[in-house]
Design goal:
Number of domains: 1
Distance between the termini: 63 Å
Number of helices: 6
Structural class: alpha/beta
Bound molecules: S-adenosylmethionine
Order of helices and strands: HHEHEHEEHEHEE
Largest sheet: 7 strands, mixed
Shape: globular
Helix content: 25-40%
CATH architecture: 3-Layer(aba) Sandwich
Radius of gyration: 17 Å
Number of strands: 7
Strand order of the largest sheet: 3-2-1-4-5-7-6
Length: 210
C-alpha cells in the first residue's frame, strides 16, 4: 500500500516537472516565491551547484561591480557581496518582488549595504551598457521565454573583458543543456572561457571579448 503511495507521489512530481518545463517555453512561469526554501544554501537540491564553487568561477576581486541576474532569494547574492567587499557593488535583479524582499531581509540581517535591488525581467532593457565586471545567471535561463534578448542584454551590460557564469542543474525543471547555452551565447558574441562540472550540473564561464 505504502509503495503505491510512493509511486503515485513520484509520478506526480515527474508530471509537474515535465508540464512546468514545457509550459515555460511559452509563458513566463518563474519559480514561485513560496518555493524559496528550495533555493536556500542548505537545500540538498541546490547543493549540486554549490555556492562556493559557482563563485570561484567568477574570479572576483574587491571593488568589482557584479550583476546577479535572476537572484532569487539571494543564495549567491549575499556571499557575492561579502567577497567583493565594501567598495564593490552588487545588482540583484529579479522579475519577482517577493524574491528581492528575501534578499533585502538577508542583507539587512548581515549589515550589507552594497546591494542594489532591481525588479525587472532580464531582456526588458533595464540594464545599462558596459557596467558590470562580472555577472551570474544561475538556473534562470530556462525560465525566460525570450532567451536571446536576455543573453543580449547581459552581453551589453558587461564591460569588455567581463565574465558571466551560467550555471544549470538537471534537478531544475528548466534545465538547459550546455550545448544549447553555448550556441546561444556564441551567436551573441560571447567567447567560451571554461567549463566546470558535468552534463547534469555545470558552470559555463563566458567572456565578452575586448
Ligand atoms: C530557480 S531560481 C534561481 C535563483 C538563484 N539564481 C539561485 O540559484 O538560487 C530562478 C529565478 O529567476 C527569476 N527569473 C525568472 N525569469 C526572470 C527574468 N526574465 N528576469 C529576471 N529574473 C527572472 C525567478 O523569479 C527566480 O527567482
Amino acid at each position: 500500500m505504502s509503495f503505491n503511495y510512493l509511486f503515485f507521489g513520484l509520478a506526480l512530481c515527474v508530471l509537474i516537472w515535465i508540464s512546468w518545463r514545457f509550459a515555460s517555453y511559452r509563458w513566463v512561469l518563474p519559480c514561485p516565491v513560496w518555493l524559496h526554501r528550495l533555493l536556500e544554501y542548505d537545500n540538498p537540491l541546490t547543493r549540486a551547484n554549490q555556492t562556493n564553487v559557482i563563485l570561484s568561477n567568477l574570479a572576483l576581486a574587491p571593488g568589482m561591480n557584479v550583476l546577479d541576474a535572476g537572484c532569487g532569494p539571494g543564495r549567491l547574492t549575499i556571499p557575492l557581496a561579502k567577497k567583493i567587499g565594501a567598495q564593490g557593488r552588487v545588482t540583484a535583479l529579479d522579475i519577482q518582488a517577493g524574491m528581492l524582499q528575501k534578499v533585502q531581509e538577508k542583507a539587512k540581517r548581515e549589515g550589507i549595504h552594497t546591494i542594489q535591488l532591481l525588479q525587472a525581467g532580464l531582456g526588458d532593457g533595464k540594464l545599462g551598457h558596459n557596467q558590470y565586471d562580472r555577472a551570474l545567471l544561475v538556473t534562470v535561463l530556462g525560465e525566460i521565454p525570450h532567451q536571446k534578448a536576455a543573453m543580449q542584454e547581459l552581453f551589453d551590460a558587461l564591460k569588455p573583458g567581463g565574465l558571466v557564469v551560467v550555471t544549470e542543474s538537471m534537478f531544475d525543471p528548466h534545465f538547459q543543456s550546455q550545448s544549447t547555452v553555448l550556441r546561444l551565447a556564441q551567436e551573441i558574441g560571447f567567447r567560451k572561457k571554461g567549463v566546470m562540472g558535468n552534463r547534469l550540473a555545470y558552470s559555463l564561464q563566458l567572456e565578452k571579448p575586448h
